[in-house]
Amino acid sequence: MEAQAQLKPPVQPGRNRLTLIALIAVALAPVVLSYLAYYVWKPSGGRSYGQLLEVRPLPDFPLASLDGKPARLDEFRRKWLLVMVDDAACGKDCMDALFALRQYRLSQGKEMHRIERLWLVTGEGQPSAAALRQADGAAIRRALAPVPLPGELQRGIYLIDPLGNQVVRYPRDAETGRVIKELVRFLKNNESLG
Description:
The protein has helices at 2-7, 13-39, 92-106, 129-135, 176-189, and strands at residues 51-57, 63-64, 70-71, 80-87, 115-122, 139-143, 156-160, 165-171. By secondary structure, the chain is α+β, with helices and mostly antiparallel strands. Strands 1-8-7-4-5-6-2-3 form an 8-stranded mixed sheet, with helices on one face. It comes from Chitinimonas lacunae.
C-alpha cells in the first residue's frame, strides 16, 4: 500500500486554480463577446440601398382606368407593388423607368408573381402606343388627385408592401443589380406578407 501512495502525483494548488479560471472564462466568453458585438463593433450591414420611408399606409386617393372607370389602390393589396408616377407624354426617363420596373419584376424568377407594377399617369392625355408597349403588362391608372408619396414623384420608384404600406423609394437611375438584390431580400424576409 505504501507503494501505491507513493505513485500518486502531488497535488498542485496552482494547476487547479488555472483550470477553474479557464472554465469561468469559457462560460463568460459568449456573454462578453455578444456585449462587444452589440455595443462596440456595430455591424456595417443591414443598410438599405433605397431610401427607407416611414412605414405607414398609403392613403387611398381617387384613381381611374385609362378609359375613365373608377379604380382603387385596394385592387393591388396582397402583392408587392412597384409604383412610378409620370405624365402621359412619357419621355425617355419615363420609358427607362418602365423598362426598369419590368426588369425588377422578371429578375425575381419564381417569386415574380408576388410583384405587381403600377404606372400612375398624371395630367391629361393618353400614353402613346410606344409607352404602352414599354409598360408591357404593368397596371396603368390615372391619378385624379395628387399622389400622396414622399419626394419628387417623377424621379423615384416606390415599393409598397402587400398591406398597402409605403416602404422604400429608389431613384430612377438606381443601380439595377442593387435594387434587384434588395427586392430579393424583401420577398425572402417577408414571405408571409404576400
